[in-house]
Amino acid sequence: MSAEKVKLLTIIGLVVILAIVARVLVSTTGGSNVEQISEEERYRIVSLMRKISYTDRLHFDFQVYIDGEREVTVSRHAWELLHPILSPHPFFYTDVVFVHNEDEAQNFPKNVIVAWPVTEGTWIQSIIAQMHREVNMTEAELSQRRWPRPVVTLEEFGLSYPLTVADLVDNWEQVMELRVALGLFHAAPDIE
User: Fold this and answer.
1) Which of 118, 137, 171 represents a domain boundary (last residue)?
2) Domain, as residue range, for 57
3) Less packed terminus of the chain by CB within 10 Å, N or C?
4) Residue 87 falls inside a structural domain
5) Preceding omega of 88 cis (within 30 degrees of 0)
């Protein structure tokens, strides 16, 4: 697949996600006056959704406070917390912060969702191994695929071999962009 096709598919993915975000914004404002939400609030909402989308695909665990009580949960539940129909207080959470483990999640404000990679078992290592396999593919190997893509290097994204669990936290935006380029993740909405 040519770089133009990859860009087109990325743009289509962005349009779909932005349509979903627009639908959420319309449903939270009663459907008739979207201007009630400031640009800053829209940016914040899209940023939260982008981070939750990333962590959902990588199956991070979360620390959230619900009715004042600390809960450790999976990312799918975090989507519900941000959803204006499913959550009684969808705009309570102001940020999603990534940390390396549950111990680092302590002492954050209650309105911050804290996420970390699950290191027990082999899931996170299999995600990293999958990215290594994809990056190591040659142009000839990629051309044999049903949905070919261009050769991608870690360096294009400011990353280096080998990827680590720490990269998934410390360099999450670069890892997300890498996963999009590798076809392992649908593009997240652009918030710039």
Assistant:
1) 118
2) 48-118
3) C
4) yes
5) no
